[in-house]
């Protein structure tokens, strides 16, 4: 006498629902039925369910198992492919763990790579300047960014820069022009401008087109700073 569906599931260490799903997707052939209409499973069915369960435990999908057919008891090629995928996953997870260790140890931000975060570790930036630097890191080479970060590392909250950071959007004409005039000749502002990657360096090192880099920088600046600050930047660079 064969096993019932529930007995087969118990013997295989799985569930009725799983056995029925194997039938639905064509992985397990339907057994003969007894006179009372109930299914009667034999040893081949149990072996098949155990094999499917084992392969899914190893990481193969039901679709992959279906592609193996019924006769291949040792699917070497499929298992080798799975092993390669797992090796790549392990490598990725190890890199992630190493990066997490740095983030936790140094309390680094998560919006920057470990290298960029290290460059800016002791830099006191405004939220706007920080966001701009995050975007810039996606556009320029590590070398160009390193030169810029070196100047930012020595960034001091000098009065003229604090004024710019706190400039309200409704600042009047006279205030904007005065601030632009003072920023234009301020030593630290000049130093930061000199350290900022020039167009040739920026475009040559970027994986993106010159047009895209230029548009991205303009868009970023336009979104991060208010109208008065943008006006000061325009006046300062006239």
Automatic annotation (TrEMBL):
Could you list this entry's UniProt keywords, alphabetically sorted: DNA-binding
- Domain HTH merR-type: residue ranges: 1-71
Please give the Pfam families that the UniProt record associates with this protein.
MerR_1
Q: What is this protein called?
A: Transcriptional regulator, MerR family protein
Species name for this entry? Answer: Lentzea cavernae
């Amino acid at each position: 006498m064969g096993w019932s569906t529930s007995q087969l599931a118990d013997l295989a260490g799985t569930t009725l629902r799983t056995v029925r799903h194997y039938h639905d997707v064509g992985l397990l052939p339907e057994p003969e039925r007894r006179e009372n209409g109930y299914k009667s499973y034999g040893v081949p069915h149990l072996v098949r369910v155990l094999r499917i369960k084992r392969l899914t435990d190893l990481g193969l999908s039901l679709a992959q198992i279906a592609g193996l057919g019924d006769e291949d008891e040792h699917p070497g090629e499929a298992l080798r492919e799975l092993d390669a995928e797992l090796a790549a996953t392990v490598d990725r997870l190890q890199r992630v763990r190493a990066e997490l260790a740095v983030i936790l140890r140094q309390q680094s931000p998560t919006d920057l790579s470990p290298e960029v975060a290290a460059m800016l570790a002791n830099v006191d930036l405004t939220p706007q300047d920080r966001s701009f630097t995050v975007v810039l890191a996606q556009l320029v080479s590590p070398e160009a960014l390193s030169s810029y970060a070196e100047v930012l590392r020595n960034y001091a909250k000098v009065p003229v820069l604090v004024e710019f950071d706190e400039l309200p959007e409704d600042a009047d004409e006279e205030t904007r022009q005065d601030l632009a005039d003072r920023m234009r000749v301020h030593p630290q502002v000049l130093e930061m401008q000199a350290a900022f990657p020039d167009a040739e360096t920026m475009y040559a090192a970027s994986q993106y087109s010159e047009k895209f880099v230029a548009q991205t920088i303009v868009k970023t600046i336009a979104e991060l700073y208010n109208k008065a600050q943008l006006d000061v930047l325009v006046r300062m660079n006239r």
